[in-house]
Amino acid sequence: MIPSPHGGRLVERQLSDADRTRRKSELAVLPTITPALDQLYDLEKIGVGAYSPLEGFMDATTLTAVVETGRLPNGLPWSLPILLPLHRAEDRATAERLRPGEEVALVDRHHALRGILHFEGKVPFDPVKVARSAFGTSDPSHPNVADMLAGGNLALAGKVDIVPPPATAHGVAELTPRESRDLFRSRGWKDVAAYQCRNPPHTAHEYLQRTTLEREDVDALFIHPVVGRLKTGDYRPEVIMRAYEALVRAYCATDRVVLSPLTISMRYAGPKAALFLAIVRKNYGCSRYIVGRDQAGVGKFYDPYACHRIFDEFDVGILPLRYEEAFYCRACQSTATAKTCPHPAASRVDTSQTRIRQALQNGGEIPPELLRPEVAEILRQPDVLLKEGDQ
């Protein structure tokens, strides 16, 4: 069955057209904060219900509970902090003057209104402690840790109301949780499996997707690439979406597959990110969640299968579909995992994104056993990778 949202209710906090017009007229008199891009993405997702049951940015009590127990104060599993830190000196100066009950305009770098914060209080926090809880390390070579350590030690708490998000810039409509749930119901789907990704698809990814669609307890597949702020060296969001569009168009049973982007900043938190991303997909109406090897990992920071085991510790109301690493086996002449392939590692072809990126950028050929030609053609184009300062 389509699961209830996390916590039992889908949070929807969007300003009406009339309220949006009124709030924009008040910009000159409201205190104003300019959140970083990560928090603007979080703001939007709180407002549309992707982070249900959160109705705003966390207060000190909630942050402490999440950091120390991996749960909200009411005991509901929640693995990562959702904070509104103050990155800019002028925002910290504004915060000094705020009093609980005030309303704060949240604007982007172009001073466009993105939402209203109903200010409840300030949240002093230790970024090192929070980083160790969320990411398992305080090493600044970890991209999210570096961001957290650079972002100060003070955040603002409060419920939010958002300006309805703009149309996606990636070519494929970005569904809200309300829209995806309505779509699943309209097609008669009760059990939809979510596929989390942040890279273009190669055939090992496709193998997991196809294997999932063969299950009797799965009605459809929701391919949901993260295309918000990624790290330098990752593929550009629009490239990821074009690659998936090509795959779905040419090779997927489109009556059982939905593709939609998820515009959030990627949290490379290994097992805790896997749990968080599963909760988000539950809010979008998915009852199953595909968990591959080293999901949401980066470098060598995490045990590759810790992202599997965390679902034994926390029941978040979505069934994890756990898969071992898939690879192409020359002897089998097919994609497989260690559960089905008896051949030694020497028979297996490396399907790592790093190898594929390097080969394509150096003009090398990638065999179709590893990468569909339609996808390879997209990835072979110039300027497909994010560079320092792009986001």
Question: Can you give me a brief rundown of this structure?
Answer:
The chain is of the alpha/beta class. The protein is 34% helix and 16% strand.
What topology does this entry show?
Layout: H1 17-25, E1 32-33, H2 37-48, E2 56-57, H3 60-69, H4 89-97, E3 103-107, E4 113-124, H5 127-135, H6 143-150, E5 154-162, H7 177-186, E6 192-197, H8 203-213, E7 220-225, H9 237-251, E8 257-259, H10 270-283, E9 288-291, H11 306-313, E10 319-322, E11 327-329, E12 334-336, E13 348-349, H12 353-361, H13 373-379
Helix pairs in contact: 5-6, 9-13, 10-11
Describe this entry's structure for a reader.
By secondary structure, the protein is of the alpha/beta class. It folds into 2 domains: 17-162, Sulfate adenylyltransferase (Roll), CATH 3.10.400.10; 177-379, HUPs (Rossmann fold, 3-Layer(aba) Sandwich). It has 13 helices and 13 strands. It has helices at residues 17-25, 37-48, 60-69, 89-97, 127-135, 143-150, 177-186, 203-213, 237-251, 270-283, 306-313, 353-361, 373-379, and strands spanning 32-33, 56-57, 103-107, 113-124, 154-162, 192-197, 220-225, 257-259, 288-291, 319-322, 327-329, 334-336, 348-349. Strand 9, helix 11 (306-313) and strand 10 (319-322) form a beta-alpha-beta unit. The chain is globular and about 70 Å long.
